[in-house]
Write a structure and sequence with these properties.
InterPro entries: Di-Nase_FeMo-co_biosynth, DiNase_FeMo-co_biosyn_sf
Organism: Photobacterium gaetbulicola
Number of helices: 3
CATH topology of one domain: Nucleotidyltransferase, domain 5
Shape: elongated
Largest sheet: 6 strands, mixed
Pfam family, one: Nitro_FeMo-Co
CATH class of one domain: Alpha Beta
Protein name: Dinitrogenase iron-molybdenum cofactor biosynthesis domain-containing protein
Structural class: alpha/beta
Strand content: 15-25%
CATH architecture of one domain: 2-Layer Sandwich
Keywords: Nitrogen fixation
């Protein structure tokens, strides 16, 4: 059983799960096992967050310490069995390991930060039903254009 801490480039607790520069993974004795880099931290959507979750699970992480997390990500983490705790942003990693900072257990998705994006919650649309886009006037799905019956288009004669 391992513990992971979301970190900034300065090795302080990151302010958000998906935007963390990386994660440091420690065993029960406090020995560093791995340092994971979050390559998708500037991406919009859920794909990189799901990849992070898989990497953490591969290192047998059961406890996750972070500054903040969105509601959808928190729900996914809790559903898969992670124990998630909120600790103060920018706290030094060593203080977190030594128990010098307060840990707030996050037990339900509502404790996560509400999503600021409008499209389906996370921006990628994963949580919303895809609406059928209306066809543009004069365009067809097959790529052929039917201009029969049109005599004027924007001041141009056909």
């Amino acid at each position: 059983m391992s513990v992971a801490i979301a970190i900034t480039p300065n090795h302080e607790v990151a302010g958000h799960f998906g935007k963390a520069a990386g994660f440091v993974v420690y065993d029960e004795q406090g020995q560093l096992i791995a340092e994971l880099v979050n390559h998708g931290r500037k991406e919009v959507g859920c794909k990189h967050k799901k990849q992070l979750q898989a990497q953490l699970a591969a290192h047998n992480v059961k406890t996750l310490l972070l500054g903040n997390v969105g509601q959808r990500s928190l729900a996914r983490l809790l559903r898969t069995g992670f124990a998630v705790f909120r600790v103060p942003n920018r706290a030094p990693v060593q203080d977190v390991l030594d128990g010098k900072v307060a840990r707030e257990p996050l037990l339900s998705a509502e404790q996560g930060r509400p999503c600021k994006r409008e499209k389906g919650g996370c921006g990628c649309g994963c949580g919303s039903k895809k609406a059928v886009k209306p066809a543009k006037i004069g365009m067809t799905a097959s790529g052929t254009i039917n201009v029969n019956g049109l005599t004027k288009l924007g001041g141009f004669k056909l």
